[in-house]
């Protein structure tokens, strides 16, 4: 019984248009590798990452979801019970940025936390190593964009050059924990509060304890 | 020239490998009726002339009857030599003539008899198909040297696409690429009835996905020998079927065909393959229909692997987590390429049932590992199968998978589910569909 570290399990969605580098970001984050040889993701792919977070253990389930818009109806079932999300776009392709708000709306319409808030979502401007950045030079504008669209923050990332990937992930985890604490606080007073969200069995993360 | 080459092979193969196939082109009107009466013994009236007479008689029912009288006279002279189509004949002059309704009914009865006979012959042909020795050899894998030919013959060309037609759609696609890269923005005349946004995204997507198709082979990537061909085949398809467009997974299927066939033949096989009901359901992303396929799969899953089925149920691991990838790419992404080609061999022989049977074979092969895993690890495992999946072990697992459930075969299970589905949607169409559309 010495090792009773508190353990958190979080499901994180990685969404965004086709070919923006979702799989590359995940591979970089989880396996510290990069390759130009990734195959297109069809349906959904999974990766796991364990973090030591202060004195606790955080287990992340990363859900890498196929980017083609056509799959939207099909992949929506994958959103269930997620606690956080990355929405990724490719800084060299303006259309992928235009799609960001669609992805965000889609996410918010299908998923809310038990307190009605939307899940913590971080915007990733990927492929920032390729000097064809059309927009993120203007970081004030991006901050504004995030505020307006309900992102907790944004990062310029490069899976190839390993820029900001860990930072973005830590930032997201911090926000997930914070939102979870909010929920716990709001839930504690009225001891047994029924979960109002009908189609989600578990909106909160799972608290596990190891012996 | 391509056509003639294909024809030669086709004739050779239809004689040996495809003897079960009804030779539709030559004998459409002449299939054997009531086999005891050899057709050659009946020089005056073979089934073809009967058919012609029948057609000429059935024709006037819709249009104005041109010369009813002379025809009747002609018929009176004729003495039928067999009972075939006797029902169509008028009665001898000493008996009361048929009324219009009666002959109408007789025509209908005749059509039904003919259809019934045809069905029976098809059924027999199906049985023959299973007993033919080549069909068993097929299971061992078709030799790579003839694989492409065998596939394209088995897939067929219901759509009657010619190499010339392919060239037309290809030049249309090239036209689009050119105009797209020149203007790369605003208004374009809408050729294929697709909006600019769709066209842009389809073209964009193809480009992005080509380099991500079998990247480890280095032949489809930019500068690789098959890059342009893959681009062409997929581009031509989006012009041929703008309503379907490009959907992820297609690049893998087209690539496998290109590896085994000439460009135009690859396109013909590709378009016909995607036109099959199961593939159409998936590539049109018809979610309701896909769920029916998943449900049918689960029926056979439970039948074959009850323990694993229960384990997956307990973990809420539904088929969409792994079947989507498998079906959209016909296993070409998840299995080693040579093993995937053998799966395609069987798929060409047995149809869609083989795809789901293969899925169950994979689950059987890895059952012991999967039983030890929780949801996320199983899902991860199935979305990235071990790279060295051995062909012989997998195929013996597939062979051990019985596609029979309660005496029903795949098609019966599937169509029963379709019927249930129709009833359900009748009941609750108003409450269900808006949510699904959202």
TrEMBL record, chain A:
Keyword Lipoprotein included in the entry's annotation: yes
GO cellular component: late endosome; lysosome; membrane; phagocytic vesicle; trans-Golgi network
Localisation: Endomembrane system; Membrane
GO biological process, one term: endosome to lysosome transport
Membrane topology label: Lipid-anchor
The keyword Nucleotide-binding is annotated on this UniProt entry: yes
Keywords: GTP-binding, Lipoprotein, Membrane, Nucleotide-binding, Prenylation
Chief location category: membrane
GO MF terms, alphabetically ordered: GTP binding; GTPase activity
Family: Belongs to the small GTPase superfamily. Rab family.
Chain's role: The small GTPases Rab are key regulators in vesicle trafficking.
Name assigned to this protein: Ras-related protein Rab
Species this chain originates from: Sinocyclocheilus anshuiensis
Automatic annotation (TrEMBL), chain B:
Sequence ranges assigned to domain Rab-GAP TBC in this UniProt record: 141-351
Pfam family, one: RabGAP-TBC
InterPro entries on file: Rab-GAP-TBC_dom, Rab-GAP_TBC_sf, Rab_GAP_TBC_domain
Gene3D superfamilies: putative rabgap domain of human tbc1 domain family member 14 like domains, Ypt/Rab-GAP domain of gyp1p, domain 1, Ypt/Rab-GAP domain of gyp1p, domain 3
Domain of life: Eukaryota
GO cellular component: cytoplasmic vesicle; vacuole
GO BP annotation list: vesicle-mediated transport
Entry's Gene Ontology molecular function annotations: GTPase activator activity; small GTPase binding
PANTHER family the UniProt entry points to: RAB GTPASE-ACTIVATING PROTEIN 1-LIKE, TBC1 DOMAIN FAMILY MEMBER 12 ISOFORM X1
Protein name (database record): TBC1 domain family member 12-like
Lineage: Eukaryota, Metazoa, Chordata, Craniata, Vertebrata
Gene: LOC107689792
């Amino acid at each position: 019984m010495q090792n009773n570290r508190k353990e958190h399990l979080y499901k994180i969605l990685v969404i965004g248009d086709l070919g923006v580098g979702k799989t590359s970001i995940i591979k970089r984050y989880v396996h510290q590798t990069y390759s130009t040889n990734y195959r297109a993701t069809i349906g959904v792919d999974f990766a796991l990452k364990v973090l030591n977070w202060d004195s606790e253990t955080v287990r992340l389930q990363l859900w890498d979801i196929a980017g083609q818009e056509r799959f939207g109806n099909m992949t929506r079932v994958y959103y269930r019970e997620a606690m956080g999300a990355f929405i990724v776009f490719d800084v060299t392709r303006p259309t992928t940025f235009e799609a960001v708000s669609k992805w965000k709306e889609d996410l918010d319409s299908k998923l809310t936390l038990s307190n009605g808030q939307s899940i913590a979502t971080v915007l990733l401007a990927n492929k920032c190593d390729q000097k064809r950045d059309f927009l993120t030079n203007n970081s004030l504008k991006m901050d504004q964009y995030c505020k307006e669209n309900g992102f907790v923050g944004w990062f310029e990332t490069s899976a190839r050059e390993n820029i900001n990937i860990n930072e973005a992930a830590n930032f997201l985890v911090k926000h997930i924990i914070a939102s979870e604490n909010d929920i716990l606080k709001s839930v504690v007073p009225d001891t047994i509060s029924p979960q109002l969200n009908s189609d989600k069995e578990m909106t909160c993360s799972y608290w596990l304890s190891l012996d | 020239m391509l056509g003639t080459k294909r024809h030669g092979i086709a004739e050779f193969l239809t004689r040996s490998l495809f003897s079960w196939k009804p030779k539709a082109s030559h004998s459409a009107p002449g299939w054997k009726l009531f086999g005891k009466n050899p057709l050659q013994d009946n020089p005056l009236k073979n089934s073809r002339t009967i058919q012609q007479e029948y057609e000429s008689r059935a024709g006037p029912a819709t249009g104005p009857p041109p010369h009813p009288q002379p025809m009747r006279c002609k018929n009176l002279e004729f003495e039928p030599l067999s009972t075939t189509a006797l029902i169509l004949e008028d009665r001898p002059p000493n008996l009361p003539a048929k009324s219009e309704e009666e002959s109408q009914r007789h025509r209908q009865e005749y059509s039904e008899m003919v259809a019934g006979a045809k069905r029976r012959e098809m059924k027999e042909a199906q049985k023959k198909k299973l007993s033919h020795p080549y069909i068993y050899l097929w299971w061992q894998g078709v030799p790579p040297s003839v694989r492409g030919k065998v596939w394209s013959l088995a897939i067929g060309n219901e759509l009657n696409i010619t190499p010339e037609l392919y060239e037309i759609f290809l030049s249309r696609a090239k036209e689009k690429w050119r105009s797209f890269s020149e203007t790369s923005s605003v208004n374009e005349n809408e050729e294929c009835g697709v909006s600019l946004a769709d066209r842009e995204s389809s073209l964009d997507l193809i480009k992005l996905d080509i380099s991500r198709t079998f990247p480890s082979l280095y032949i489809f990537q930019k500068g690789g020998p098959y890059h342009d061909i893959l681009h062409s085949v997929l581009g031509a398809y989006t012009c041929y079927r703008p309503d379907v467009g490009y959907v992820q997974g297609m690049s893998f299927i087209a690539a496998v065909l290109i590896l085994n066939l000439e460009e135009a033949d690859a396109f013909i096989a590709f378009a016909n393959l995607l036109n099959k009901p199961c593939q159409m359901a998936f590539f049109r992303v018809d979610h309701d229909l896909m769920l029916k396929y998943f449900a049918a799969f689960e029926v056979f899953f439970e039948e074959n692997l009850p323990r694993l089925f229960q384990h997956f149920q307990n973990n809420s691991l539904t088929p969409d987590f792994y079947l989507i990838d498998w079906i959209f790419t016909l296993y070409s992404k998840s299995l080693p390429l040579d093993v995937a080609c053998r799966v395609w061999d069987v798929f060409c022989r047995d149809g869609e049932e083989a795809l789901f049977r293969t899925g169950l074979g994979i689950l059987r092969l890895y059952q012991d590992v999967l039983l030890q895993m929780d949801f996320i690890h199983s899902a991860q495992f199935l979305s990235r199968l071990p790279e060295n999946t051995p062909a012989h072990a997998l195929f013996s697992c597939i062979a051990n998978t019985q596609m029979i459930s309660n005496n029903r075969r795949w098609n019966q299970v599937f169509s029963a589910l379709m019927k249930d589905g129709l009833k359900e949607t009748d009941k609750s169409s108003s409450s269900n569909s808006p949510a699904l559309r959202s």
